[in-house]
Records
---
Amino acid sequence: MRFDVLTLFPEIFAGYLGQGLLKRAIERQLIDVYVHDIREWSTDARHKKVDDRPFGGGPGMVLMAEPVVASVEAARAQQADPGHLVMLTPQGRRFDQRVVEELAANERILLLCGRYEGFDERVRLILRPDEISIGDFVLNGGEVAAMAVIDAVIRLVPQVLGDEQSSGDDSFSGPRRWLEFAQYTRPREYRGLEVPPILLSGDHGAIARWREQDALRRTNLRRPDLIDGRQAETEGGERQETERDSQ
Ligand code: ADE
């Protein structure tokens, strides 16, 4: 799987790409990540300017359509597969595990990161990207969001996780998409807190049942919306009292 990141700050990615799971996946040639500097497509040879003041006035700077569109088109042209173009923006559809699964079906993903007050609207109109937001908050740019997308998607690329790891038990994954059950490791007792005895029993059936119950219990408590689509909060923002909460 190939990722192409388009950014004004390519240096941000070096540290992240050089660590852990991602580094190993790149070394094993399971994934490729190419980082492109949008500034290289600036039409202003002297100052490499890529942004300008907004028409109509107002604070901040807007990324110009020309260098952004040119950088995406140049990156796309590097391979026969034009790839799936994602634009990271707080105005996009909300990123969740279902979107991760959808994105993981692509052989190639391009991630377009914005800065400043955003992109000239014609970038969207011309490129028609899949606009994605990682949450209802505003970041200083799309770079951290792009890393979150890569990080989540590569977990679903075959062989990236070792044999012992699996994304099947992860929260939001598997057929039910509940939160994951509690995990324990040595020691058996720590500051008076004991590991649930069933986990030490060696009875795999009983352990599986305990984990299923624990996953259901925590999901009910923390994220009831994951179980039946019920909202955790009312429209007024107050926590809804339900029978289930008091169980
Ligand atoms: N850029 C700025 N804020 C963002 C967000 N919440 N998600 C994705 N990209 C962004």
Note: The domain at 2-154 is CATH 3.40.1280.10 (Alpha/beta knot).
---
Amino acid sequence: MLNKSQTLTDFLLHEEITSPPVNGSLTMVLLQIENSVKIIGSHIKQSGLVDILGKTGYKNAFNDEVQRFDDLSNTLLVTTLLSSGEVYAVASEELKEPIYSKNKGGDFIVCIDPLDGSSNVDCNASLGTIFSIYKKGDNILQKGNDQIAAGYVLYGPSIMFVLTTGKGVNGFTLDPSIGSFLLSHSNIIIPEKGSQYAINEGYSSNFTNQTKKFLKSFKSNGAKLRYSGCMVSDVHRILIQGGIFLYPADNKNPNGKLRLLYEINPMAFIINQAGGLAVSDGIDPLTILPNSVNQTMSIVLGSKDNVKIYKSF
Ligand code: AHG
Ligand code: MN
Ligand code: MN
């Protein structure tokens, strides 16, 4: 007996009545993202069979090698969003500068990490897409607290669409037989504490004393390490099971690696909405006015108790 039957579209139509700022225009943008990620997901599911793997041969603004899959995901999302008529500008991890709609119409700014964890592409491990939506303002650069919606898609054993519009967090799982995302995880709350941590511990010799001391203490209490190299997958695990995700600044990368607009702000918004905490350089990342679309920062987020303990070191 099928007991999950509310589609993402049904959910958004209901939110339009009960939860402003969700309205027809925002629903349209979210459904354009939904369509794009279904196509990206379908390509991912066939990735060992069709000629799509490998590198493009060029680098993005972050000096990352751009994979062909990054390029495909970026082109698909940017084109779909800009053709919706609702989107004024798209800023993407794969673009040096934001792209604006032709007639400068549209009310929304959408920031995207089209493919997250792209080093996993060639080895068939988890991938994601991250998005963050703002109202058009005087400037593309706005504080994370100004996001009106954010979410991610996890291309795992099943494909999940996790969304917040500022009223909690809901998760939808793609039913491939009907091609729809169905509400499967209603009102997700992150456990108050957990015993898992996600960090690239290969960099431990460069960690700051705060990170070293925190990890030593956490491990002495039996903590387990789980790290996939895909933020979406690692944060999703923490969201569901509790614990802490860290990509701290270290002695080699004093500004961290993860991008404030494309990765940190959407994830921090989601984690906050689920009852967790996020911290970048000792403060709430959502209060920071970005100085560039390419700004990177440290990020530690997850269960409230774990992040509070991290801050206390
Ligand atoms: P992207 O594939 O969008 O460049 O993101 C990769 C990010 C993030 O997903 C992950 O948490 C982190 O980079 C992994 O970096 P390390 O390989 O340095 O651990
Ligand atoms: Mn990423
Ligand atoms: Mn990416």
Note: Residues 70 and 115 are 5 Å apart (CA to CA).
